[in-house]
Automatic annotation (TrEMBL):
It comes from the Bacteria. This is ABC transporter permease. Keywords: Membrane, Transmembrane, Transmembrane helix. The chain crosses the membrane at residues 15-34, 46-70, 91-116, 136-158, 165-188, 223-245.
Length: 271
């Protein structure tokens, strides 16, 4: 496991992660400064909206997850590691790397938000309701990232390139919310549909926007608990797919497969 973790946290990946962390801190600072300048943020909204950086931290977490679990580079690494390690160990080394990366980014975000609150919005004390809002916003972010990244792990395997994996991971964010929106049309007349898995992809938005509570028809405790349950389900399915189903084709194998299809097509045309 230690060897696998060292591979996942190699120099290249550490540099990329450092760039992500610096980018996240800069964006957090800019959001607070711009929000204060345009009067779209105050101390309360800064906490309630998680500094306005929710899409950024979720994008970075998705990039980390997608590139660890899909693409020819990841497949090649898995194939090499399978000679000395089990698929189960390889899977959890990737999960640990993703979790460590996300929680470091989350901690940086929280610390930067608190710092900017004192720097830009010193008039409101960081206590009571303000502190509670940040706690809920942080919890909502964790719950959403757990369910969404588990979903990404479950479905990302077919992507053949790292940029395809990133693009698909990003698009999944909008696809899941679109499906959730469609379900909401029927929730008003079919109460039992509140427990459909896509309803829980609104966990973070419900915390930040009270109107979403009217749409999901779930309490905060229900939607966070449900997100954790569905995250567990997606995670288990993703684990089964990774360990027992995926073949982890290398670039050479993919090229050979495409060439075989091309030769077959040419034979049919000349026949």
């Amino acid at each position: 496991m230690v060897d696998l973790l060292k591979q996942e946290m190699n120099r290249k990946n550490r540099l990329i992660f450092l760039a992500m962390a610096v980018f996240l801190v800069i964006v957090t600072i800019l959001m607070a400064v711009i929000g204060e300048d345009t009067r779209t943020l105050d101390g309360y909204k800064l906490m309630n909206t998680f500094g306005g950086i929710t899409p950024v931290i979720e994008l970075l977490a998705t990039i980390i997850t997608a590139t660890r679990f899909a693409g020819v580079d990841s497949n090649k690494q898995v194939r090499q590691n399978m000679e000395r390690h089990s698929k189960i160990t390889i899977f959890f080394s990737k999960v640990i790397t993703c979790m460590v990366g996300y929680f470091i980014l989350l901690a940086l975000s929280v610390l930067t938000i608190i710092f900017m609150k004192y720097l830009v919005f010193p008039e409101s004390a960081f206590a009571g309701k303000l502190a509670l809002e940040l706690q809920w916003a942080t919890l909502g972010n964790i719950a959403y990232v757990f369910i969404f990244e588990s979903f990404v792990i479950m479905v990302i395997g077919f992507c053949k390139t790292w940029y395809g994996a990133i693009a698909f991971g990003v698009v999944l964010n909008y696809i899941t919310e679109l499906i959730a929106g469609i379900f909401m049309i029927f929730i008003y007349n079919n109460r039992q549909l509140i427990w459909n898995p896509f309803n829980f992809f609104f966990v973070e938005k419900q915390i930040q926007d009270g109107m979403k509570h009217m749409m999901t028809r779930l309490t905060l405790n229900q939607i966070i608990a449900g997100s954790i349950v569905y995250a567990g389900i997606f995670f288990v399915i993703g684990f089964i797919i990774f360990v027992f189903i995926r073949k982890f084709k290398t670039d050479d194998e993919l090229i050979a497969k495409r060439q075989a299809k091309k030769n077959k097509k040419q034979k049919l045309q000349t026949a």
